[in-house]
C-alpha cells in the first residue's frame, strides 16, 4: 500500500476475536521489544569447531560488541545562561551534550529535547529538584547517543553525520514554565532554558544550517509539539526546518474510573509552573490553558512540518493515564498493565478504544502533505532513541508496510516519499483500508 496510512475498518469490535487478540498482543510485546535478547543469544553462542574457529567467533563477537557500543558524549554546562535567569529547578545552569557533524552533515543539525515526566506539586518538585531532572550538578558527565542520535551510518544512515545535540531536561513542564516559588526554592524556568540554549546553539554555528530537525521523546516530545513553530522562527526561510515528536501524543482520555487523571495532573503543572503564557497562542485563543498542554489540541495548528511517532498502545499512558493506581483502587488493572495476556475481555475493549482515540486525534493532522505519521501497534513508549526500535539494521525496528521507523522518518524528512502510516489493530481480521 506504499506510504499511505491504513486503519482497521470501523466495524464493531468482534467478541469471537477477543481471545485471539489477547494472544496476539502477548506475541506483540515480544516481537517489538525482544530483539536485544535475540542478539545476545547469537553473541553468546560458541562455535562447535576446533580452536581456530573459536578464535574467529571471539573476534566476531568483539567486533559486534564494538559496533554496538553507543557513542558517549560529554556534558557542556551552559553557565552563561544564568545571567538570563535560565536555570534548572535548583538554580544550577542548564546543560547539553554535543557531538559535531562531519562531511556532508557538517551544516545539518538535530536538536533533541530530553524527556522525563513533569512535577505538579511541592512534594514531586522537591524530589525532582534533588535529582538529575532538576539539577545540572547531578547530571551524568557523559551520556550515550543512540537511535536517531547515533553516529553509526548503519544504524542511522540519514542523520549519523549531522551535528547532534541533546538539551538536558531540568525543569518540570516540558521546557515551557516561567515562575519562581520562593518558599520552596523552585525555579520554573523551562521557557528560558529553551530560549537561552537555542540561542547559544545558533551562535556556535546552527544559525547557518541548511537542514535542522527538532526532536524529543515523551515530555521532550510534548516540548517539540509546543515549540515547533517557535523553533522554525529562529531560522532563515532558506533553512529546511522540521520537527519529530516521539511518544509525545498524550491524550486527554477518560480513565478506567470515569475521571480524567491526566487532565487533573496537567492542570496542576500548568498552574504551578506558570506555563500559560508560553503555550501556542492559536490554541489559547480558543481553549483553556490545560487543554492547550494536550497535543491533540495543538497539532492541527502547527505550521512547521512535523512528524508524529507514537505507539497506539502507549505503555506510559496505559499505566499512568488510562489505568493509573488512583483510578484503580482494587488493583483490577495491575496484571493487565504488566502482562497483556492477563487482560480480560472488557480490558481489551478499553485498550482498543484508546487506540481508536489516538487514530481519531490525528485525522485532521494527517491531511497536511508536509506532515508525517507513524503509529504502530506496539506496547512501547519512546522509539526513536533506542537502536532496537529505531533501526532495522540494529535489531528489527517495528515496521508498517515493511518500512521501519528510521526509514520512514528519513523518507519524510528528505521528501523521498510521503509517510502517513497507521498500523492495523489486531481485531481488523485483514480488512484494512486507506484513511489518508
UniProtKB/TrEMBL annotation:
It is found in: Secreted, Cell wall. The keyword Secreted applies. Keywords: Cell wall, Cell wall biogenesis/degradation, Hydrolase, Secreted, Signal. InterPro entries: AB_hydrolase_fold (IPR029058), PAE/NOTUM (IPR004963). Its main location: secreted. One of its GO terms (biological process) is cell wall organization. Its EC number is 3.1.1.-. Belongs to the pectinacetylesterase family. This is Pectin acetylesterase.
